[in-house]
Every structure is written in C-alpha cells, then in structure tokens.
Amino acid sequence: MRYRKYAIVLGYIILLISNAISNTYAADNYKYERNLGFFTVLMMPSEVPLTNDKETKQYCGGDCHWLYPPGLLPSKSWRAIMTKLNTHFGEKVELPIYLTQKIEKYLVDHAAEVTYSSTSVKILDGIADDQTPLSVFGSKIIKRKHHKITKDVYDRQSIKNSTNCPACHIGVKNTGNFDEDNAEIPER
C-alpha cells in the first residue's frame, strides 16, 4: 500500500517534468506542437491519412498528379487551391459548383490541422500564420528535408518534378508514410 502512494507521486512528478520539457522544446515556431505537447506529437503516427472520399479520388488524382492526402496542407491552402481551379497550376479545371464545394469541404475537414499525424503537425509548424502555401514546399520542414535535392534530380524521367512525391517516397500512395527511411531517389 505504501509503495502505491510513491508510485502515484512519482507518476505525477514525471507528468510535470514531461510537461515542462514539452513547453521548453516547443518554442514559438512550433505552435502546433506546443499546443498539442511534444510527447503527444511523438506518440502520433507519422503516416498521413489517405484520401477516402470517392469524388475527391475521382477528380483530384489521376492523369495530372497523384492524389495528395489532405493532411499535407492547412485548410487555408485547400480553400485557396479550390477557389483558383480556373488557373489550377496552369490548367483550367471545370467542375460543377456542388462538386467543387463537396471536395473543398472534404479537403478542409481532413486538412493538416485536424489530421492525427506527426507529419501534418511538422508541416504546419513550418508555415507562418500569414502564409498560404499552394504546395507542401511552402513549409520550412519540407524545404529543409529536400534542400539538397537539385533541379536536375527532380527533372529525371522517373520523377518529372518536385511534386511527384511517390517517385521517391516508396509506398506513400498506399500508406501515407513519408518517412526518410522509406525514401529512395531513382537513378534515372
């Protein structure tokens, strides 16, 4: 019985220390991590949940580009992308208004702020409040992780451009796992 009291006190002390470490680690530039707590983020899966909405899959992936998981961008980015479909990265995308609204709602409802993924949290932490990136490369963490990759690598036939994540992140289409351990840059 006496040891049980010590265990409770020890548990409480560990909780206080972990909270202090969390707040110390999560400086101002780690706003989402700070709000959630370092250990909470540490315990999150790194995989970004894949898109499971039928219309979003049908109209947002395929011939033009791979189907980006909504957790790769904040909701403000998805709203900006969906309002500029007439000039969608050099292409004009025409969808009925109801479908545009439905897809936008899905993307916003599953954006990085609400996705339970440490990758999403890290992406958000790398985006300034006044910034609305239209690409994951608008996040400091993505830029930092890819800064050594040169344009000629992205121009390789098997990669084509920097937005073709599955070319190097093996299995990401099936798992949502962007970990470096699962990345391999193709030779050609």
Written account of the structure:
The structure is a single chain. The protein is mostly helical and 188 residues long. It has two domains: 42 residues; 129 residues, no CATH class. Helices cover 47% and strands 0% of the residues. The chain has ten helices and no strands. Helix 5 runs antiparallel to helix 6. The longest helix is centred in the first third of the chain and has 24 residues.
Helix and strand arrangement:
Layout: H1 2-25, H2 31-36, H3 38-43, H4 54-60, H5 75-83, H6 97-109, H7 118-125, H8 140-146, H9 151-154, H10 172-175
Alpha-carbon Rg, integer: 20 Å
Helix-strand string: HHHHHHHHHH
How would you state the average pLDDT, rounded?
83
Number of domains: 2
Report low-confidence residues grouped into runs of 5 or more: 22-29
Q: Strand fraction band? A: under 5%
Major sheet summary line: none
Query: Helix count?
Result: 10
Distance between the termini: 67 Å
Note the overall shape.
Answer: globular
Helix content: 40-55%
What structural category do the secondary elements indicate?
A: mainly alpha
Strands, total number: 0
